[in-house]
Design a protein that fits this description.
The chain is mostly helical and 58 residues long. It has one domain. The chain is built from two helices and no strands.
Length: 58
């Protein structure tokens, strides 16, 4: 596996984790903790976007 493949898998895994965190915040927790889960999920999306942008440049 080269660096681009590793970054691709990292992006995919972070998108899955981000979606699951947003789903936890939306469907499982109805109080303030749900907002925290959703915010962390959006943060995972931002980091996955950076990993995707780094493919081919590192």
């Amino acid at each position: 596996m080269n660096k681009n493949t590793v970054l691709g898998w990292a992006t995919f895994i972070m998108i899955i984790v981000g979606l699951s965190l947003i789903a936890l915040g939306a469907f499982r927790y109805d109080d303030v903790a749900g907002w925290g889960f959703a915010a962390v999920g959006i943060g995972f999306f931002a980091i996955a976007w950076v990993f995707n942008a780094l493919k081919g440049r590192v």
